[in-house]
């Protein structure tokens, strides 16, 4: 069955602790001029309206900053992803900060409430905090906790405000959208104890950069996809900070010891050959933090374009 591909721009950055990731899609579009000038003419994106004006005000929610605005974005993302999937499209999301992915997962489950959803998260971070455990209050560290419906109260460090708890519960929704055993990490190398506790408790696999290099990308991808063998549909979330800061520091929370560009591209392309994938997301490109011109967005485009073209070719077959 062939699907139309739809690029969705979520230029929201409320979940990050530094400013500028809302400019990531624009920076990628500027990068495209060097490599394929008419790419975004041939594949125009739809852009969600954002609420980034929340940044003009101080946030009074300390343990999940600007959660009111982020909850609003979650709803918008959920609705657009749901609609795209119901229209038989393949959504490719380019988002600012990674909190968006919680909304994406909500949208996928809205479209396919009865299908078992597996998630592969290529990232330097586990993004499993809740407002009760977050060390920073930055909501881009929390999207997977909403997806697996996890407050992690046994590791509670914070006393979130009532308003935070209200929005948080709305964002989690009534049910788990992803089972913790249906989650695989690739490249995670910066976590805090509350996240380690959840990863150990549910034995969530994390293929480190070293393991990927030792065992080879094909083997790791196969193992990840086999592990998710009971899942009927899959979602791939790609944070550019899974790559090494030597590529570029144009991302909010760079962590040394990441993948190089070729490895990242091969991982993503190898995984996406599995026809169970119905959605792809790329996040955290921040041109304001880039010390090498527009290098991060250029790298991101050199990954995004082949991803788009591979999915398009697969859908035509
Ligand atoms: N999507 C990201 N870049 N997440 C970074 C999270 C960093 C840290 N674990 C925190 O919660 O603050």
From TrEMBL:
GO MF, any single term: manganese ion binding
The keyword ATP-binding is assigned to this record: no
Catalytic activity: L-arginine + H2O = urea + L-ornithine
Cofactor stoichiometry and binding remark: Binds 2 manganese ions per subunit.
Example of a GO biological process term: arginine metabolic process
GO cellular component term of the entry, any: cytosol
Coiled-coil features, chain-numbered ranges: none
Classification via CDD domains: Arginase (cd09989)
Enzyme Commission no: 3.5.3.1
Domain of life: Bacteria
Keywords associated with the record: Arginine metabolism, Hydrolase, Manganese, Metal-binding
Pfam families: Arginase (PF00491)
Cofactor: Mn(2+)
Pathway(s) it belongs to: Nitrogen metabolism; urea cycle; L-ornithine and urea from L-arginine: step 1/1
Protein family per UniProt: Belongs to the arginase family.
Protein name in UniProt: Arginase
Organism: Croceimicrobium hydrocarbonivorans
Recorded name of the encoding gene: rocF
């Amino acid at each position: 069955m062939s699907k139309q591909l739809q690029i969705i721009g979520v230029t929201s950055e409320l979940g990050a602790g530094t400013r500028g990731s809302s400019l990531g899609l624009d920076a990628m579009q500027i990068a495209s001029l060097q490599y394929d000038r008419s790419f975004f003419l041939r594949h125009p994106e739809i852009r969600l309206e954002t609420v980034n004006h929340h940044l003009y005000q101080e946030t009074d929610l300390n343990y999940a900053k600007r959660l009111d605005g982020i909850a609003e974005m979650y709803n918008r993302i959920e609705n657009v992803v749901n609609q795209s999937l119901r229209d038989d499209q393949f959504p490719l999301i380019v988002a600012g900060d990674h909190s968006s992915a919680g909304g994406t997962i909500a949208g996928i489950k809205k479209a396919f409430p009865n299908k078992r959803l597996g998630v592969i998260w290529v990232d330097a971070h586990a993004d499993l905090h809740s407002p009760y455990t977050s060390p920073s209050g930055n909501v881009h560290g929390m999207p997977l906790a909403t997806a697996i419906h996890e407050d992690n109260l046994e590791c509670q460090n914070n006393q979130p405000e009532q308003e935070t708890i209200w929005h948080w519960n709305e964002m989690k929704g009534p049910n788990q959208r992803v089972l913790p055993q249906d989650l695989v990490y690739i490249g995670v190398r910066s976590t805090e104890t509350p996240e380690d506790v959840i990863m150990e408790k549910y034995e969530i696999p994390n293929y480190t950069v070293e393991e990927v290099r030792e065992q080879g990308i094909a083997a790791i991808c196969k193992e990840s996809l086999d592990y998710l063998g009971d899942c009927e549909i899959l979602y791939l979330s790609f944070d550019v900070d899974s790559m090494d800061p030597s590529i570029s520091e144009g991302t909010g929370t760079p962590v040394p010891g990441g993948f190089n560009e070729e490895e990242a591209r091969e991982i993503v392309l190898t995984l996406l050959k599995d026809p169970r994938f119905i959605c792809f997301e790329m996040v955290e490109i921040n041109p304001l933090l880039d010390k090498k011109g527009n290098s991060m967005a250029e790298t991101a485009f050199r990954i995004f374009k082949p991803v788009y073209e591979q999915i398009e070719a697969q859908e035509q077959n």
